[in-house]
Amino acid sequence: MSSITAKSYDAVPPLDVAFLGLGVMGYPMAGHLASAGHKVTVYNRTPQKAEAWVAEFGGRRAATPEVAAQQAGIVFCCVGNDDDLRSVVLGEHGALAGMRPDSVFVDHTTASANVARELYQVAAKQGVRFVDAPVSGGQGGAVNGMLTVMCGGDEAPFDAARPLMLAYAQAVTLLGPVGSGQLCKMVNQICIAGLVQGLSEAIAFGQAAELDMRKALPVISKGAAQSWQMENRGATMVDDKFDFGFAVDWMRKDLGLVLDEAKHNGARLPVTALVDQFYCDVQHMGGGRWDTSSLIKRLRDRS
Q1: Taken in order 160, 163, 166, 172, is the CA torsion positive or negative?
Q2: Are 126 and 105 in contact (CB under 8 A)?
Q3: What percent of the chain lies above the pLDDT cut of 70?
Q4: CA–CA gap between residue 210 and residue 281 (Å, rounded)
Q5: Could you give the dihedral angle defined by the CA atoms of residues 117, 120, 124 and 125, in that order, rounded to the nearest 10 degrees?
Q6: What pLDDT does residue 303 have?
Q7: Strand 104-107 to strand 129-132: parallel, antiparallel, or no bridges (unpaired)?
Q8: Which residues are CB-neighbours of 278 under 8 A, at least 6 positions away?
Q9: Exposure on the CB side of residue 98, measured as CA atoms within 13 A
Q10: pTM recorded for the entire structure
Q11: d(CA 190, CA 254)
Q12: Most buried of the four, 22, 110, 157, 172, by CB within 10 Å?
């Protein structure tokens, strides 16, 4: 059975593209590109994952990012962090070693704005165009082709890549110069951190008051308290289920990027810093791979 949910694809002429990184996000995103008719070459640090992808979607597997990028007009990437990104872009066998002038590198990694600016400058020296394009929507959004993509960079490469990104996204927006996508993703994560903590406290409060939260949540979700987190995580929080979704370890990585950026731009983030420490508590409870909604666990276990 396919790892992606079928969606209708806009008519885009088939292109040779590459996709670097086949994790829980990249695997289905690359699958949507293949299902949309593009000729996709994939690279993954663990070759078995790339072999499984090729068996499911076709295309071909490359042994290095350089080889994957050689025939590609657009190279997409979705890896773990700044260092992972540099490792697949730079160096003798990195993607830039194989990319031709005027090709486009689209980075979906949630990384720092600084690394986006750094790679933009390096790519420009050899005529390659770079777009930072972190995503929101989680694994479900990737599988269903309903991600939101936040982009930073120049208009021409964005315009070239946007029709392809719509294979796995519902919204793709250019926000400003390179780095703007990463900054917007930081804003996104700040919002989520506060929302999940508030929802955790609300559910824990309701349960302590012996209110039936399975009935209460559908009621308040029709009013001003409604949020994506309430709609998609409220019921599983009530049921104490967290073995899915966006991991606490990943959220702490993201919030680390946020707090580091805030040191440089002077933003005051007292709630975000506090919730980051709450996530640290969850990690110490053994919940590093739990969904971010597991913040409620520390309220229950410490009551």
Answers
A1: positive
A2: no
A3: 98
A4: 26
A5: 70
A6: 43
A7: parallel
A8: 197, 295, 298
A9: 23
A10: 0.94
A11: 9
A12: 110
Residues in CB range of 135: below 8 A, 6 or more apart? 25, 78, 108, 110, 141, 142, 147, 148, 149, 150, 169, 185
CA–CA distances in Å: residue 90 to residues 65, 93, 97, 100: 9, 7, 7, 14
3-state class of 269 per DSSP?
Answer: coil
CB 182 within 8 A of CB 112: yes
**Are β-strands 147-152 and 135-136 bridged in parallel, bridged antiparallel, or unpaired?**
antiparallel
The per-residue pLDDT for range 159-208, each reduced to its tens digit, is: 999 999 999 999 999 999 999 999 999 999 999 999 999 999 999 999 99
> What Cα–Cα distance (Å) separates residue 298 from each residue in 38, 100, 252, 295?
46, 51, 16, 6
Domain boundaries, the chain: 16-177, 184-301
Tokens for 224, please give them.
């001003």
CATH number corresponding to 184-301 = 1.10.1040.10
How far apart are alpha carbons 303 and 301 in whole angstroms?
A: 6
Pick the CATH number of 16-177 from 3.30.70.1400, 3.30.300.30, 3.30.310.50, 3.40.50.720: 3.40.50.720
For residue 18, give the nearest of 67, 68, 58, 52 by alpha carbon.
68
CB 41 within 8 A of CB 86: no
Annotation marks residue 185 as catalytic: yes
Rounded average pLDDT over 231-237: 97
d(CA 266, CA 126): 35
- Report pLDDT for 302: 56
Query: Which entry of 185, 215, 241, 297 is annotated as an active-site residue?
Result: 185
